[in-house]
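thoughts on both lines:
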Amino acid sequence: MSATLAPAGPSVVAGLPTPAQLRAVYPVGPQQQAEIARHRRAIVDVLDGTDDRLLVVVGPCSVHDTSAGLHYARQLADVAAELGDDLLIVLRTYLEKPRTTVGWKGLLVDPYLDDTQDLCAGLRLGREFLCQAADLGLPLAYEFVEPMFAPYLADLVSWAAIGARTVASQPHRQLASALPMPVGMKNTTSGDVRAAAEAVHAAAVAHVYAGLTLDGHPAVLHSAGNRDCHVVLRGGPTPNYDAVSVASALAILWDAGLPARLMVDASHGNSGKDHRRQPLVVADLAAQLAAGERGLVGVMVESFLGEGRQEIDSTPLRYGVSVTDGCLGWTATRDALDTLAGAVRQRRRASAALPPSPVAGQPAGLAGRS
C-alpha cells in the first residue's frame, strides 16, 4: 500500500511590500491624521450617547471600481454636511469580500476582476483609494477580513467591522482589541447575537498574539483592549431589526455587563438579501428611533450610484453598480438618509423632557471582567 503524501505547501508567486513601505508611498499627513482622530472620537461620542446623532455607515457592498467609488463619496460628502446635525455619516470603503464558499474576494485580492489575483496591485490601489476618499473629509468604514491586511490600511479607517463569518474567530477578536477605532461585531450568519456579544467582551481586554510589525517582521504583539466595540444586528435566517429583536439584543448585552448599544444593518439577512427591502427596514428603524429608542445608535445601508447588482463578468460592466450584493441607488439612498435624520429629530424632541439615560453608557460590570 502506497503512503499518502501530504499536500505541498503554498507556492510563493510574488513578495508583498511591507505595511511601512506602502504607507510611505501613500502617506497620511499630519492634517489628515488629526481629522481621522476627530472622526474616531465623534463616533465614540455617538456610541457612548454623549452625542445624540445617529451613526450611519453607508456605501457600496464592496468597492470594485475606485473611480465610481470616489464619485459616490463626493456625492455623499455633500449630504453628510447637509444632514450633519442629525446623522454622523461614515462612508463604506470595503475592499475585501468574505465568501461562504468561493467567489470574487474583493479589490485587494483581485483588483482587475479577472482572477489574476494580483495582491500587490490590489494593496496599492486599495490604499490609494482610501487616501483619496479620506481627502474628501468623510470618516471611512472598513471590514477587516484578512487580519494580515490590517496594518496596510487601518490608519485610514475611522470605523471597522468584523463580519458574520469571522466574529467568532480568535484572530479577528484579537485584531479588534488592537484596532485604534470603534469596531462593530456582526451577529453570525445563523443569527446568533450572543457570539457577537462575546466578541465585544473578548475585544475589550488585552491580548498577546503573534503578528507582523509595520516593517514586516514576525513579532509578539500586545493589544491594550478596545472598549469601543459594539454589536451589529444583520439578521440571519430571519430578520432581527424589529423592536422585539432590538430589545432582546439589548437585554443580552446588559446581562453580559456590556454597553447596551446596537447598530442595525438594513441589508443582508435583514433585507432577505433583496436591496429593494432596505427602505422598509430603514422605515421600521426610523419608527423605533422616533419612539425614543436610545440603545439604537447606528444603521448600516448598502448603497451605490446605481440600483441593484450585476455579474462580475458582465460586458460591459455598468458604471456605479455593485458586482456583489445588491445596493440601493442614489435617489433611494438620499430618501433613506432623510428618513433617518427626521427620526433623529423626533427622538430628540421626545427625549428633551426626559432625564439622562445610561443605556448607551459603560456598565461598571465590564471593568472587572476578564
Observations:
- The chain is about 35% helix and 15% strand.
- The CA atoms of residues 348 and 355 lie 12 Å apart.
